[in-house]
User: Fold this.
Amino acid sequence: MRIDIITIFPKMFAPVLQESIIKRAQKLRRVSIFVHNLRDYTLDKHRKVDDRPFGGGSGMVMSPEPIFRAVEAIKKKARVIPRIARDETKTKRQRQFLFRVKSKVVLLSPQGVRLTQNVVKRLSAVKHLVLICGHYEGIDERVRERLVDEEISIGDYVLTGGELAAMVVTDAVVRLVPGVLGDKNSLNFESFEGNLLEYPQYTRPASFRGYKVPPVLLSGNHLKIEAWHRKEALRVTKQKRPDLLRK
Assistant:
């Protein structure tokens, strides 16, 4: 999978992309992540990427030209996955097919659909994901209408820009890419799987300051443990997020 992030603050991403699961995913070559400075794609001599809105209004609006130029250049680069494309064991037709990488362009925006685990699953199946980080007071509407495939919001609150939202989407998506997580079964028992929150977890020692681990978890009876997991997941979800059960 390839992820390209377009932003005017590229330095914000280094601490996130070079740690933990995302770092390992890149090292394993399961994911390639590139961060692009939008200012590199503007034709303005002062590297401006925004302008005053027509009709008046407060603040500045991101211009369409640098965003269009950035996405078009990125799509052109992403048509080829070099490591695979050079594989001479494949037939000519197979190699040609690998050149046709379909891109999905996502704008991080408060107007977008709410990010859920189901949305993350869908995005993790995409071969090439382009994330556009908005900023200032908004973005030229022609970007939404002519360039973007989907808008995504991480919640009903206002952020300074789309950078933090892009980090959240990247983290959530990367961990679902096959081969990234060491334990394949761990994905089946996470929060929001089947619209349930995760059941309570315990580790050693079995007794800590008089607080004991539920006996069933020490029984070794896998059927009883599985039933307990399901029951507790339902209890926790009903208590903390009853809206999930209605789904």
